[in-house]
Amino acid sequence: MQGRRVDRIEEQLRIELSEIVEREIQDPRVHFVTMTRVKVTPDLGQARVFITVLGSADERKKALQGLRSAAHFVKRSLAKRLHHLRRIPDLIFEYDETIEKDMRLEQLLEQIKTEHE
Q: With a threshold of 0.90, does the pTM exceed it?
């Protein structure tokens, strides 16, 4: 039962964070950011927010800096939106490398396929 609750909270946090980043953050470093997933600790003390950024590695770095500097503002906005939660987790923003790894794996598989033909 606890696992389903945490899953629902993670998804709700991802949706709300996406809206806050898109509509409320005015930092020019934070643009073309997508929230891919959120993982919270069982006690809801921390939430690791995984993001992707459309752009170069430098733009990714700047976006993470902007999000990390806005973390307190974002947490306050979450508290206003999610007043039914007793505790709003501290936010830790990280870049999600899963998509890049998947693309690299796809390239390797395609390369193997063309070598066999």
A: no
